[in-house]
Design brief:
Blueprint (H helix, E strand, L loop, with lengths): L1 H11 L6 E2 L17 H7 L4 E4 L4 H9 L5 E3 L1 H6 L3 H7 L38 H9 L5
Parallel strand pairs: 1-2, 2-3
Amino acid sequence: MATYGYLIQQLNRFNLAYLHFVEGATATSRTVPEGVDLDALSAQFEGPFIGNNNYDLEMALERRAQGRIDAVAFGRLFISNPDLVERLRRGLELTIAPRESYYGGGAKGYTDWHLADSPGLVTAQRPDVAIHQTIIQSGVTP
């Protein structure tokens, strides 16, 4: 923690636009190493903190409401949901990409995903108004 805390103190001198943490191990676990307190580290940073790693809409809204993050990066979900913001806004089903399609192997499974309004996609239950209002109040422009 002392090393990370020192690093963040030094980064504050540069007036960075944001600090982006991967919480845990990418694509596997949100468990952070023993002795690391991401909330304490993000509190030391003097700018926006972006959380990342296996977030869903509910977790993003909850952590934002708690002040634990300022924004969230949905990395992998953007690959298979080119209209991710609209899907989250409308409570539509998300498409999960197979891991083997990530970042290589041509267009199939990388750039050929359908938009939510395309035939064959099922509409999931819409989030309630409170969730939508939280998005708006958080300052995130969906």
